[in-house]
């Protein structure tokens, strides 16, 4: 009889552990989903505002903008690379503090406004077949940057949250575990940032050259 009770209690305890582990996994997924949805909403609002800002520009302003992009000095590969690299690294670093996360929201919103403005410009002003590839390259850039940004914000925010939680509960031993995981995540994000920066640095001159060709063709 005692053996039966022991088996029953151990089985019940095992089910309780499985249930709690599943609950923790569901919470992690829900936190990630909330962060992704929040960032996408901010980006979408910025995209809409940026597109409206461009569409409300006068024809003279649009023509001047297209001429400036086509004839202006283009950035070098290293300049574009470091510009994108430092932007993503700033997003990652700021996510470690509460104030930094608030600043990140404004940076993400500003990137959305810029993206909406650029997309409206490419769609309305650039109309040749070659420019379709410019739009595709630009969209690939934007999606890759957005993906990297979401992961950067999530990983850094999660690390800061877990450290604060461990300090409040006085579980100092967990901080070392979180730090090891943080280092692994940081290395992964660092590689992803480098890939994003490389892709941006390679495709940006292609987009600029295509716009220059379209301007030259329209002026002939």
Features:
220 residues; mainly alpha; 6 helices
Give an overview of the whole structure:
The chain is mainly alpha-helical. It contains 6 helices and no strands. Helix 1 packs across helix 4 and helix 3 packs antiparallel against helix 6. The longest helix is centred in the N-terminal third of the chain and has 54 residues. 21% of the residues are buried. The N terminus is likely disordered.
Q: Would you summarize the structure shown here?
A:
The protein has 220 residues and is mainly α.
Largest sheet: none
Globally, the shape reads elongated
Structural class: mainly alpha
What do the pLDDT scores average to? 76
Rounded radius of gyration (Å): 24 Å
The N- to C-terminal Cα distance equals 97 Å
Number of helices: 6
Strand content: under 5%
Topology pattern, helix = H, strand = E: HHHHHH
Number of strands: 0
**Regions with little confidence, pLDDT below 50 for 5+ residues:** 2-6, 8-14
Helix content: over 70%
Strand-helix topology:
Elements (H helix, E strand, L loop, with lengths): L1 H54 L3 H13 L5 H18 L3 H28 L3 H40 L4 H47 L1
Helix pairs in contact: 1-4, 2-6, 3-5, 3-6, 4-5, 5-6
């Amino acid at each position: 009889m005692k053996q039966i009770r022991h088996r029953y209690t151990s089985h019940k305890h095992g089910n309780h552990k499985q249930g709690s582990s599943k609950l923790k996994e569901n919470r992690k997924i829900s936190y990630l989903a909330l962060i992704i949805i929040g960032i996408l909403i901010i980006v979408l609002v910025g995209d809409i505002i940026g597109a409206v800002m461009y569409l409300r520009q006068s024809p003279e302003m649009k023509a001047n903008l297209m001429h400036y992009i086509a004839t202006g000095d283009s950035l070098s590969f290293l300049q574009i690379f470091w510009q994108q690299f430092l932007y993503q690294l700033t997003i990652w670093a700021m996510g470690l503090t509460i104030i930094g996360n608030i600043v990140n929201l404004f940076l993400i919103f500003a990137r959305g406004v810029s993206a909406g403005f650029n997309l409206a410009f490419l769609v309305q002003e650039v109309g040749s077949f070659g420019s379709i590839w410019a739009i595709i390259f630009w969209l690939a850039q934007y999606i890759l940057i957005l993906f990297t940004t979401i992961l950067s914000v999530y990983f850094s925010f999660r690390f800061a949250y877990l450290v604060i939680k461990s300090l409040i509960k006085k579980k100092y031993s967990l901080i070392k575990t979180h730090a090891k995981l943080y280092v692994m995540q940081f290395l992964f994000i660092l590689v992803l940032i480098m890939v994003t920066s490389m892709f941006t640095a390679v495709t940006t001159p292609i987009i600029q050259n295509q716009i220059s060709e379209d301007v030259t063709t329209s002026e002939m």
